[in-house]
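Subject: complex prediction, re-run

Hi both,

The earlier run crashed halfway through, so I resubmitted it with identical inputs.
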Amino acid sequence: MTKLSQTLINLWIFLLIFVRVLLVFFYGNDGSKMVVDFLGYLVLMFVIYRSHGFLYMLILLSNPILLWPNGFMPMMVVACVHLALIQKRIAEKIIFIVLGALAFLYSGVIEISIQKDIGIINSINDFRGGLIEIGQPLIAKILHNKIQYVPVVLGQAISYLSPGFLFITGDNNVGSISFAIPPMLNIYLYFVATGLLKIRWNKYGIAVLVYTVILGLRRFPQTEDGVYLLSIPISMIVKNTFLELKTKQRLVLNILIIVNLILLTIFTINLGQQ
Amino acid sequence: MNTNSYIINRYHLIWMGVIVVLAAILRLTWLSRYPVSLNVDEVAIGYDAFSILKSGKDMHGKSWPTVFESLGDYKPGLYIYLVAFSELVFGVNEVAVRIPSAIAGIFTVLVLFFLISELTNNQRLAVISSLVLALSPWHIRMSRGATEANLALFLLISGYWLTLRAIRFRSKFNFGVFFLALSTYAYHSEKVIAPLLYFSTIWIFYKSAHKTKEWITWTIVFLVLLVPFFKTLDSRNQSRLSAKTINKDVEIQMVTSRADGNKVIVNTLLTANTITKRYFEYFDFGYVLNKGLNLTNSSNLDLGWFYWLELPFLLYGVGLILKNKEAIFIDKERAQSALSWLVLSPIPASITMDSYHPFRLLSMVVVYVFVIAIGIDKFIDLAKARRYLTFKAIFLVYFISFAYFVDYFMIQYPKDKSHWQFDPSKEVALTALKNQERFDKIVIDPNFGKTGPNIVGVPDLYILFYGQITPKIFRESITNNGFGKFEFRKIDWNIEQKNKKTLLIGSTWSLPIDDLRDRIEKEIKFYNGETAYLAVKTD
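This time it finished cleanly. Structure:
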């Protein structure tokens, strides 16, 4: 890639993200633009990963993620972080980090609000009361304090990584028995499992962990945020594993993914008509 | 595998002795006091055992049943027969009802050592696994209640270990099949897991170099031992089976009835979808770590099936298994067989109703414990020169975690669940029994609750158990609403106050405390100090 084309691509990316952030700032996070945003993002990734751009597009596009609302801004946060990491020049890294921070601030959905949860504060006080009643105020203070936010945050975060949520049920995780839409295509469970098995997920794996902790810091965790934050690094893990398969296996799986893509499109059209 | 591995290193032997004593202390100390009272199922088990002891019949009059009708939930019989024996030794009390589960828990800790040695030939890992299980909040919780699943787990582990051993030695007799078959008489989940585990293990080893003809004899013995179980599948037990299976789930039935098109196909698809969902729920670490034990009413703060501070070891263990399982297990077959345990464990809980059922899933505790132990074992290796410091760090981790468990289990759990799991039915029964000479009639209202009288207790069963009323006397004195002087029905004070020499025991929903202050014989409180029942006399 020449210096000029790299600069042009970067300029185009800056423009795309900047305009989108400005739109959110002035008009709010309108979910109706989701599909357009998503397709814009796909083109972006196709340009960046030219060598495997088509494969990556296919993987991302074949995910049921398209059916989930209001997720462009969290996705932009991830994209900016990702782009900042792959830039060579410091100036461009900084610009992407600033854009990512802007997207983060104005996403309106990713916020650290767990400390406002009155339910946790009440529980801590209640548990303290139990110990004070039996004459153990010191133990009450040692055991039940703000440190109890840690398991809550981690618990919320880890729930996003459950295979049931990502590949099988999505937000219909518990309770409801209606047919569920998972964020990721079922078949990708195989790829992620294989990727984990080979431990070839270093930076994407770390990205997944960081994003889940961010998700855990929310008072009311929103499943769609999790979907968008996690879909990109998980798709990268899938893509990397996919590239390691033999040609014949790849062909079979390509066909399978395209069949899934067609089914998903039919399902989307039906859903739109309803 | 080197057969010498069964000569246990003296160092490991001492450690195992300490761990078993620790397990016994944690499972037997204050057994009658924590959990703070017998729940409905425990009392039903206790009275069925007493009934068997006195008459050879269960509380419904059936002689020596394999499956007990009990409260209509058709309990497997083995645990009840063991309680009958312990009641013979300890008398009819809380300890007698709970001790078979506690002892099974202690032996599970010991047998796990042999099982892990058999799978990995690593005695240090086996010792660590036993220690992790001895301290496991999930296993302690289950061992301290009359939990049939806990007994079944002990039998399952023993059966599995002995089967692996029989395969290794190509033994003619496999005592493991006795334990595996017995586990199906201890708990319903094992009716699914035990045969699947046995046949999958045999299949894994048969297709490898371990081909052995002896397995035909073992399988015949196993199937013969299951004959009484198949015989119990009469129409009444089948009704329990079908009532608990997931396709009878109310929501599935509701959606199916509303659906257009072929209802059979819709029902099948919904059932398959729900089973898949349930299956994967048990791999949601967020729930497993935060809310698995369900000890509190808090939507956020609770305890999970294992300690939070064990999570790094769990993840490290998972990573090690994924990276190089050959380095952990003796051979590929044992690795596959252990993996089959993980895959099979959630099946019974997935095909039945109720999400996150910790009893039906108890066999999975072994998998979690094993993976955590792998993480700890390798972590100690990593430390090398700083091994002493590592031991201190691990000790600190468990000390802090255990402090939380003690607090939740002994302080918060009884207080938070006092309106439901720990209602003072025992005190109601003792009050009624104590006053039966003074009154012509004792009426007990079984309805109670925090926000309204929406929970129905079984005070009759508590009176039968704590009064040690023999089945013969019970059956001879049955009346329309109860037995003997006792009546169990809704109390309406406006009507009841006209009765003479009657003791009324009911919640404040049926007996208004402010109007009856001068008539109150006794105020019975919930564990959290709130008024639960009033014992009120009429003129």
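Chain A is about 70% helix and 0% strand.

- K.
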